[in-house]
Amino acid sequence: MAGLKHSRQRDAIAENLRHRKDHPTADMIYKDIRNVYPNISLGTVYRNLSLLVELGEAKKITTGTGAEHYDGDTHPHNHFICRCCGNVLDMNDFIDCSKIKLLAADQFDGRIEDCSILFYGVCGECLKKEEKEKLSSAETSDRKTAIQETEVDFPA
Ligand SMILES: [Zn+2]
Ligand SMILES: [Zn+2]
């Protein structure tokens, strides 16, 4: 395999991926690895990431909204994608994908090898921000109503 000769760089990429929980994009890993290997190119990072996925040492998460994310945790688990900040979060594997795979295989000619479930929505951090904004805008509109009530004289 062509990429195998760059094994030190690949090890560094695998190591970087294993020690983070933020499901980085190739770009994010590239920025980190460049500190150790200043001459590495983004293309090399991409190639090594693909190889790691092929070797089963990493998983690729396709979000459908922009760049692909990579996960050093290859144990079966599901993911959540925040539509506000774009973060990819881990979800517990509370859904038994092995059962889903069997159900799917029942109605499918091909061979099903893997199954992952993506949840979409707003993450806890963004929800907190949203609540705060709602609260502060509710305060201002409360004030506005109060002002209106004192200023407007309704005819009796
Ligand atoms: Zn978020
Ligand atoms: Zn994950």
Task: Itemize the secondary structure elements and their pairings.
Layout: H1 7-18, H2 26-33, H3 42-54, E1 59-61, E2 69-71, E3 78-82, E4 88-91, H4 97-106, E5 118-121, H5 124-151
Parallel strand pairs: 3-5
Antiparallel strand pairs: 1-2, 3-4
Bound molecules: zinc ion (2 copies).
| Architecture (CATH level 2) name of the largest domain | 2-Layer Sandwich
Apparent shape: flat
| Number of separate domains | 2
* CATH overall fold name of the largest domain: Dna Ligase, domain 1
SS-derived structural category: alpha+beta
Cross-sheet strand order for the largest sheet: 4-3-5
Strand content: 5-15%
Description:
This protein is α+β, with helices and mostly antiparallel strands. The protein has 2 domains: 1-74, Winged helix-like DNA-binding domain superfamily/Winged helix DNA-binding domain (Arc Repressor Mutant, subunit A); 76-156, Ferric-uptake regulator, C-terminal dimerisarion domain (Dna Ligase, domain 1). Helices cover 46% and strands 12% of the residues. It is built from 5 helices and 5 strands; from the N terminus they run αααββββαβα. The strands form 2 sheets. Strands 4-3-5 form a 3-stranded mixed sheet, with no helix packed on it. The longest helix has 28 residues, at 124-151. The mean pLDDT is 87. Residues 82, 84-85, 87, 123, 125-126 line the site of one zinc ion.
